[in-house]
Amino acid sequence: MKRYEDVTVDSVECIAPDIYDMHVITDMAAVVVPGQFAMLYTGDASRMLGRPISICECSEGGLRFVFRVTGGGTRDLAAFKGGDKIKILGPLGNGYDIKAMKGREVMLMGGGIGIPPMLELAKRLSASGIKVRAVMGYRDSNLFLKSDFERVCETHVATEDGSAGTKGNVLDAVREKSLFFDVICACGPMPMLRAIKSYAAGNGITAYISLEERMACGVGACLGCVCKTARKDAHSHVNNARVCTEGPVFEAASVDI
């Protein structure tokens, strides 16, 4: 169940250009499903809305958030220090259904800032005895979190500029390495997710994708993060779903992207 609370920042570290790693102390981790997110509030009265940040990793004593600085709000988050208090609302949204992946081989595909939420999923799948591998897509050789994934599962890398791993995107790496799997779990920019949806449909593979959308409330009240779906919503009778509540994780075939 989601809750709104003041938590203590344990540490904030820059781990790549504009990429920050924040650890907070909370027992919220006990109820997190991989793929969920939280709203983080900067405390600045001029920025009343929280910033939706995916949950990268859970531990017994807290949560880990890895995010990119893209504007004033995330710049404020990056300025927090150990010992500071920060308000968070979470966990929010629907995550990945690990039970549905039992007995199958799973490929995790993360692109850019869609890489962090794949880490907790990799850990949970591996702990459940599910065969899991990961392909991570980066702009260049700033391979943030790569070593974290390598401690959990077989990991491959693609870079846009060819400076590390396969030159190209995550699907280029899949083809180059001749990787086979039954299920894809993915998070990343929309062009990447569209390509994965097409690849999965063409190869008879089940794909679950986490959509990145601009959010205001994070709890489904403002309808600011609606996406198109293949089926009509039972209440509104339109082909829409709220990414913050019905998502952010959807079966790829169920959404029109």
Write the layout of secondary structure elements.
Layout: E1 3-16, E2 19-25, E3 37-41, E4 51-54, E5 57-59, E6 62-68, H1 72-78, E7 85-92, E8 106-111, H2 116-127, E9 132-138, H3 146-150, E10 154-159, E11 166-167, H4 170-177, E12 183-187, H5 190-203, E13 206-210, E14 226-228, E15 240-242, E16 249-251
Parallel strand pairs: 8-9, 8-12, 9-10, 10-11, 12-13
Antiparallel strand pairs: 1-2, 1-7, 2-6, 3-4, 3-7, 5-6, 13-16, 14-15
CATH top level of the largest domain is: Alpha Beta
Q: Architecture of the largest domain, CATH level 2?
A: 3-Layer(aba) Sandwich
Poorly predicted ranges (pLDDT <50, ≥5 residues)?
none
- Looking at the structure, the CATH topology of the largest domain is Rossmann fold
According to DSSP, the number of beta strands is: 16
Instruction: Give the number of helices.
Output: 5
What does this molecule look like?
The protein has a seven-stranded antiparallel sheet with strand order 4-3-7-1-2-6-5. The chain is globular, with a radius of gyration of 18 Å. It folds into two domains: 90 residues, Translation factors (Elongation Factor Tu (Ef-tu), domain 3); 113 residues, Rossmann fold, CATH 3.40.50.80. Strand 1 and strand 2 form a beta hairpin. The mean pLDDT is 89. It is of the alpha/beta class and 257 residues long.
